[in-house]
Design brief:
It is a single chain. By secondary structure, this protein is an alpha/beta fold. Helices cover about 30% and strands about 25% of the residues. The protein has 13 helices and 20 strands. The longest helix is centred in the C-terminal third of the chain and has 19 residues.
């Protein structure tokens, strides 16, 4: 008898709005970090660990729906599913648990004139990447999923990927940019830096890459990292990576001591002034979000004008901005030193990606 469900199948069920109840059996402190959108939480982890089935034997569950249990790595949820099945209710455990769910994804699209933006979202990780199509040309920004995902999305739109662009050298997930560029024959684009150990096309502030009937302009926006850039498509939007988010700004402290973090925070302040001085009607398309992404097809974006209003007094004083940012630094991303090393060398880890990339994104200060 099948006892487990794989991530891809659950992803498809949720995307298709099939009747399913996802039952999260983790402790509360694990749940608050990251969860599956629409899931129901029952704090029975300790009971299951102690061999007490009581709470799940009494739990009221909906009729006519599939039940999928989930825990951190997929072991305790097997016990939960078994208890529920003994009640005569169909139940499966999510194979690999929330670690495996970190690779689940969904999309949302919006047309802006002749340009179509498809936001490709790792719902279990918060990474946002973009497929931008203009006629038969496509560009991908900050790919964080298997290259086949982007190749398939482009093919379905009758487009060929011309550029693969990273906004910076990532610390919380493995960049798939080099792999995607190799598989698609696209040009690999990053800002000029001394960290990467593989071939790429270096770009600098103000450069414009011809694309469809328009261009992709490079804006230098250091602060989160020294090489961070934002990509601007005129009359469409800005793709800000980890510099500016919908509800926060990039952290300036990774790979930096206190003095360096302060200097980076000043650079970040100036980069934010630069971005918020652009046309307020432009869409902000960030590189991360801080909450699980629902399967609702709604693009996570806002106008630059809205974002400037949200920042409010954050940008009134450089000194106050620096002090505020440094006082709110979140915990460092798990395994970020290893991830950065892989992204700098272009090597691919032999270990399980779900272990390496586990955990919610921690690139934002809000």
């Amino acid at each position: 008898m099948t006892e487990e469900l794989d991530v891809r199948t659950l992803q498809e069920w949720l995307a298709q709005k099939q009747p399913v109840t996802v039952l999260d059996v983790r402790p509360v402190h694990d749940r608050v970090q990251w969860w599956i959108p629409g899931s129901r939480h029952v704090d029975v982890y300790d009971s299951l660990k102690a061999g007490d089935p009581g709470p799940l034997e009494q739990l009221s569950l909906p009729e006519g729906q599939s039940i999928v249990t989930v825990c951190g790595s997929g072991r305790m949820s097997l016990k939960a599913a078994e208890i529920i099945r003994k009640r005569g209710i169909p139940a499966l455990s999510l194979r690999g648990g929330m670690k495996a769910w970190s690779l689940a994804w969904n999309t949302a699209s919006r047309s802006c004139g002749s340009i179509e933006i498809t936001q490709v979202r790792r719902t279990g990780k918060g990474c946002l990447s973009y497929l931008i199509c203009g006629g038969t040309e496509a560009a991908v920004i900050d790919p964080a999923l298997d290259p086949e995902v982007y190749l398939s999305l482009a093919e379905n739109r009758g487009a060929r990927i011309r550029y693969v662009l990273d906004t910076h050298i990532h610390a919380d997930h493995l960049s798939r940019a080099r792999l995607l560029a190799n598989m698609s024959g696209a040009e690999l684009i990053l800002s000029k830096n001394n960290r990467l150990q593989y071939p790429y096309k270096p770009v600098a502030d103000g450069e414009k890459l011809p694309f469809a009937a328009t261009s992709i302009e490079v804006l230098s926006t250091p602060g989160h990292t020294e090489e961070s850039v934002t990509y601007l498509i005129a009359d469409v939007g800005v793709f800000s990576g980890d510099t500016l988010f919908l509800a926060g700004v990039g952290r300036p402290d990774l790979h930096a001591n206190t003095k360096e973090a302060g200097a980076r925070a000043r650079l970040l302040f100036r980069s934010l002034i630069k971005l918020t001085s652009l046309d307020g009607r432009l869409l902000l398309c960030p590189g991360h979000t801080s909450e699980p992404i629902p399967f609702d097809g709604a693009l996570l974006t806002a106008s630059l004008g809205e974002i400037a209003d949200r920042l409010g007094d954050w940008l009134a004083s450089e000194e106050e901005f620096v002090n505020r940012i440094l006082a709110r630094i979140p915990p460092t991303p798990p395994n970020y030193l290893s991830i950065v090393q892989f992204n700098e060398t272009g090597n691919w880890p032999e270990s399980d990606l779900t272990d390496l990339e586990a955990g919610a994104n921690r690139c934002a200060v809000s």
